[in-house]
Amino acid sequence: MILVTGGTGTIGSSTVKALQAKGARVRVGSRSPDKLKGQGVEAVLFDWEKSETFGPALQGVEKVFLLTPVSDKQTQYTQALVDAAKKAGVKHIVKLSVVGVDAEPGIYLGRLHRSSEKAIKDSGIAWTMLRPTFFMENFINYYGADPKKDSTVYAAHGQGKASWVDGRDVGEVAAAVLTGKGHEGKAYELTGPEALDSVEVLTILGEVFGHKYTYVPIPEEAAKKAMTDMHMPASIVDGMAELAALIRNGWSAGLATGVKDVLGRPPRSFKDYAKDYAAGKI
Ligand SMILES: NC(=O)c1ccc[n+]([C@@H]2O[C@H](COP(=O)([O-])OP(=O)(O)OC[C@H]3O[C@@H](n4cnc5c(N)ncnc54)[C@H](OP(=O)(O)O)[C@@H]3O)[C@@H](O)[C@H]2O)c1
User: Fold this and answer.
1) Could you read off the pLDDT of 38-54 as tens digits, one per residue?
2) Which H or E run includes 259?
3) What's the CA gap between 275 and 227, in Å, rounded?
4) How far is the centre of ligand 1, averaged over its atoms, from the C-alpha of 28 (Å)?
5) What CATH architecture does domain 2-133+166-190+254-265 belong to?
């Protein structure tokens, strides 16, 4: 049995789908297990804020896909789950981390992933770290590119390029690692096949979706104000601003071989992602 945390989100749902395709036994941990009814998957109440939900969720579980939401508390969450996993006899934890986690001094959100990785490594449980770059899905999920209509994306990405990865590739890598052999003690950096700037991405989405997408680069302060106005905590606003700065400065443009190393095929391109989205396959 494999417990997938964050299994209703972008990467977790891709992981669940890929595990189901392999015929693996999967249990999804969610604050709202009812919303998974009728989806052919076992669901269990799981809340990072309520560690009493960890024991029942881990019953009979051999492996865990560990995905924490973006939170100041992610290291505490991870440590608490690691402690419960040890008690439950879990054999392998696969953590969704982030590329550049070892960078010194790095960025705030990267350091949280680094200390979470350390909590897992120190546990004595076998581990694998998945370290993806920015997700292609961010354009639709967060940046304001609406697949159904013309739209404008305001971001502090400047003209910087990033090596966007398709969340399905991350999920398929996770499933392969969770069901395969020889991945213990390894960290995989996961990127797409090419580095693209925001205009290049929006040109691809525009061609495939048949809409006009405009990119408006905005100053960091304007991006921070918009996030503050959305009542995001100050630490996360600053963390998000650091992420945008990584793109602006071209520090997220590196390509890695993790997808090919694990899956034996190249990563999907942004065009592949857009076409599959338009065809309703995502
Ligand atoms: N976006 C990027 O470009 C990017 C790049 C690299 C790494 N990352 C990392 O990816 C992770 C986010 O992954 P994602 O984008 O797939 O997530 P997501 O789509 O935002 O989904 C968040 C998931 O976390 C669950 N969740 C939220 N709060 C919870 C709580 N209190 N207790 C239990 N579950 C909770 C939600 O489940 P329920 O609502 O069902 O409970 C949901 O399944 C973060 O760790 C981030 O640092 C992101």
Assistant:
1) 888 999 999 999 999 99
2) helix 258-263
3) 30
4) 13
5) 3-Layer(aba) Sandwich (3.40)
Confidence band for 191, pLDDT divided at 50, 70 and 90: very high
What average pLDDT does this structure show over 52-64? 98
pLDDT value at 220 more than 90: yes
Sorted by where each begins, the domain ranges of the chain are: 2-133+166-190+254-265
- Contacts of residue 238, defined as CB under 8 A and 6 or more positions apart, other chains included, come to 108, 224
67 Cα to the center of ligand 1, angstroms: 6
Both tokens of residue 152? Answer: 């404008």
| Ligand 1 atom nearest residue 243's Cα | 3
Q: Element (H or E) spanning 278, and its range?
A: helix 270-278
Q: Is 239 in the pocket of ligand 1 (CB under 6 A)?
A: no
- Other beta carbons within 10 angstroms of residue 24's beta carbon come to 16
* Residue 163, amino acid: S
The residue among 107, 69, 64 whose CA lies nearest residue 83 is 64
Regarding the beta carbon of 209 and ligand 1, being less than 6 Å apart is answered: no
- Decide: residue 27, CB within 10 A, 0-12 exposed, 13-18 middle, 19+ buried: buried
User: Is the shortest distance between the CB of 141 and ligand 1 below 6 Å?
Assistant: no
Give the three-class secondary structure for 39: coil
pLDDT tens-digit series, residues 80-106: 999 999 999 999 999 999 999 999 999
Q: In whole angstroms, what is the distance from residue 243 CA to residue 70 CA? A: 12
8 lines ligand 1 (CB under 6 A): yes
**pLDDT score of 177:** 98
Across the chain, what does the average pLDDT equal?
97
